[in-house]
Every structure is written in C-alpha cells, then in structure tokens.
Amino acid sequence: xxxxxxxxASVSRDEASxxxxxxxxxxxxPAFEHFEDHGFFRIVRNRETSIFYVSWYDAANRQTRRxxxxxxxxxxxxxxxxxxxxxxxxGNPREALTEAPMEFVSQALNYYKSEYAPQLRSDAAAETAxxxxxxxxxxxxxxxxxxxxxxxxxxxxxxxxxxxxxYVSRILSVLRAALNRAEDDGKIARAPKVPEVRGEPQKExxxxxxxxxxxxxxxxxxxxxxxxxxxxxLVATANSAGRxxxxxxxxxxxxxxxxxLFELNxxxxxxxxxxxxxxxxxATWKPWLEPIEKGPIVxxxxxxxxxxxxxxxxxxxxxxxxxxxxxxxxxxTVGRWLENAGVPGREISLFMGHIPVSKKKSTxxxxxxxxxxxxxxxxxxxxxxxxxxxxxxxxxxxxLEKPGVVKPGWKRP
Length: 413
Prior knowledge:
Blueprint (H helix, E strand, L loop, with lengths): L1 H8 L3 H8 L11 E7 L2 E6 L5 E7 L4 E6 L5 H13 L7 H4 L7 H11 L7 H16 L9 H13 L4 H20 L15 H6 L9 H9 L4 H13 L3 H6 L5 E2 L4 E3 L14 E3 L5 H4 L9 E2 L2 E2 L4 H11 L9 H12 L4 H8 L8 H4 L13 H17 L19
Antiparallel strand pairs: 1-2, 2-3, 3-4, 5-6, 6-7, 8-9
C-alpha cells in the first residue's frame, strides 16, 4: 500500500484526479486512459469496456468529472466532443449530451432550414424543396425507418408528374443534406441513405450552375465592377477558384505568410465533401491580401459580406453577358484553364478542393501534396497567375495586379 501511495504521489494532480476519482468524488480504480484533448474537455476511454467518456475539471469542487459518450467508436466520440466545443458548451456537458435525438424527418428538415439553408447560395431553392415537396412527403416519417426504396418510389412519382430528373435529384439532395447534417451535428445516430436518382448520362448532360467564360468575358465582368467588396471577391475567385462561401468566410488569420499559404478551411470548421484546400497564394493575389491584417478578406463598410448573389446578378445584368453566369462562373473557368495549361490532374483536384490535403505528416512528408513542400501546387499557381495576367491584358478599367488601381485612360461610360 505504501508503495502504491508513492506511485500515486508521482502522478500529476490532473492525471491523478482523472484516473482515480469517480463522479461522486470517491476513489476508484485507474480504469481510464487518455485519448485526446479538445479545449475545455478531454476524451478518455475505459480500459475494461472500451467505452469513451468526456472528462472536464470541476473548478468549484476541484475535481475531474466524467460523463459517458455511450460509444466505443473513437470517431463518434470525437464528433460528439467537437460538437460540444462548437456549441460553446463549458462546464458539465451532460445536458447537452443527453438531448433527445431527432425522431422524425420533419425535425431534421426544420433544423437544416433554420441553421444551414440561409447560408447557401441556393437558399431559396432549398426552402422551396423543403416546404413544397419534402415536408409534405417525408415529414411524418421516422428517420430510422426511412428506406432507399421509398426515396426511389417518390422520385418516380415526381418524374411521372413531369418534373425533370435533374429537378427531382436536387429535391432529394436537400433531404440528403438535411439528414447528413443532423448526423454530423449529433442530432441522430446515423443518417439513412438517400440515393442519387441521376445516372452518369444525366450528370454529364446537366449544365453547370455557372457557365464557363472566355477570358474577354471575365474582363468584361471586371470592367463593370463598381463596388470594392465585389472587386476583391472576383480577384480572390480568379486567383483561388474558391467557392463563394469559402471566400466570404476566409479571414486574414488563416494566412501563414512565412510560407505564403492560405488555409481556406477555418479552424474548428468540419470539412465537408466540398473540401476547402490549403492554398498557395499566387503572386497576383498577394498584394491584395497583404494590407489585410485581420478579419474577413472581403468586407463592405467594415462588415463581413454574407452573400454576393444579388451583387453578382446586378453585375451580370450590367455587363450584358448571355447565358447562366453567376458567382461560380469564374471558378469553372479557372478549372478549365488549368486543364488546358496541362496542370496534372491530382494537382487540379487539390487546388479545386475536389480531394482533401492530408493532415497526417507521415502520409505526405517529402511529397508535393505537402503544403510546405516547395513544389506544392507549383503548376496550378503558375497557371493561375498566367490566367489573371491574361485577363488583365483585356480589362479596360481595373489593373488586377495593382489593388484598387484604375488603368490610365479609362473613362466612365
């Protein structure tokens, strides 16, 4: 016993409380092992049962306490604790952990509509899909009993009512997104599979949300810009091919100037299938970013810009460009430019956010897929710089290599 006491004395106060105190404060066997830390919380695992727990320090009682996460899956445990952190939970997390899971599809749809749809470029379309189709058809269904066949049957019925296959696919994509978000946020244990009703031929035949542009057409867009925030947005898109929401949420604090890297996925944000890459900053973008010491890279009157949808609609109207031109058109144009410039496919995929950059050093060390490797995105960035300089040859108003500078001789129409 004396020997055991000496051993315990050599353990840190934090570790001792973690390993030897139960929720009641009574001594217990050292049955827990440390797994990982998440700010205020720590994840530990019971050695005997392999069940994960979240632990935290109760300052008032000067004790480390635990609450079960009710899972043996490390990824599920991490997801639950990450959600606590994102929700701003501090102190005892039991109430947040014991929130009743969603039972009906209507709950997932309402949650998605209130929490996520307003942030989408297609927010109106998502709300229409929920209100006019998904809620009436699936709202009363239990999430756990929703089957793939039921979704396919609904798709056939809608198509028989003369709704296009692509439109039906978009409706079901909203249902899929709502259920997946509910799972990601810990509202349900597992999202039912919502099938894709389009085949490959239908996917290939679908028009891009924003059509590709020619270099002179991109220059026309720039020449009709009159608002500083929209100019910065278009410059960022031309240099990064970033999706609108990624650019608008990007902050100067995400830049690592020592390596000219811009991590477009902010810390704390869970990556989705639309990956936000770690971007090497092009020389044509650098002078636009350097003056921004902190905060969003695109602002209006000192405030973050939540959407450029209406500004882009007005810009396209004034520029008189034909066809489906919107906030994603320049992104698609950059992608085509990279292909035509002979940039390797994997590098294009990294640049465009089609595949993730691994954060495991062991899998990317000494590889051009490592953001700190001198050849990381080297071909893509060279091509993008060529793209921006080519546009600059065609612009009459803005000098894209000199932030906010109007070209000599330009006169307001």
